[in-house]
Amino acid sequence: MDGHRGGWIEIIAGGMFSGKSEELIRRLRRSVIARQRVQVFKPIIDDRFASDEVVTRDERRLKAYAVATSAELLSRVEIGVQVVGIDEVQFFDAGVVDVCMQLADAGIRVIAAGLDQDYMRRPFGPMPALLAVAEEVAKMHAVCVRCRGAAHYSQRLSGGNAQVEVGDSSYEARCRACFERYTAAPEEEPAVQLTMPQPQPV
Ligand SMILES: [Zn+2]
Q1: E strand or H helix at 10, and its extent?
Q2: How many Å lie between the centroid of ligand 1 and the Cα of residue 170?
Q3: What is the pLDDT of residues 149-194, one digit of tens each?
Q4: Can 165 be counted among the known catalytic residues?
Q5: Is residue 18 classed exposed, middle or buried when 0-12, 13-18 and 19+ CB atoms within 10 A define those classes?
Q6: Where do the structural domains in the chain lie, given as residue ranges?
Q7: Phi-psi region of 125 (alpha: psi -120 to 50; beta: other; left: phi over 0)
Q8: Domain 8-140 architecture
Q9: Ligand 1 centre from 95 Cα, in Å?
Q10: Ligand 1 being an ion, which residues bring their Cβ within 5 A of it?
Q11: Which of 40, 49, 73, 168 might form a disulfide with 85, Cβ 3.0–4.6 angstroms?
């Protein structure tokens, strides 16, 4: 985890409410404390993601650069950076896999957090390839709202059938036994907004 030297890729995967972003922040904070040069990126999904977010440790702040594409992410990595954090990596284009590989090959530690599956339990975007190439994978679990077991799935509760969806209370964590296949109510319009759990204040 922190004992490696040089570049590598670690992925923090799991469903919604599983603490992926918090774990990403925890690892990044450790790197900051170790006085490594850290940069953090996240995809621009909608207006809520356009503003830069910060990871704070005491007075120190880490800006999360919102970027539109994996190519833009690569172009914004500064010379001398030792650790690159990526949040919501599942929303990036497929090129993010090569970008992570390039960064790791260049000696950078890449730590990326993302949803491994969508609401239909389909592998999400570039996540399968990222899980394959990563040196280390952490699977995070939420607590199933039904049975309090370890939840691996993001159960959609309302909204349409788009892969990227809807409002604050539209999902809950469910385990395999409690997961139910979602069918959109016919009267509902397909929605395009997105709400993801926000990183906890540090
Ligand atoms: Zn359950």
Answers
A1: strand 8-14
A2: 17
A3: 999 999 999 888 888 765 556 899 999 999 999 888 765 555 555 5
A4: no
A5: buried
A6: 8-140
A7: left
A8: 3-Layer(aba) Sandwich (3.40)
A9: 35
A10: 144, 146-147, 149, 175, 178
A11: 40
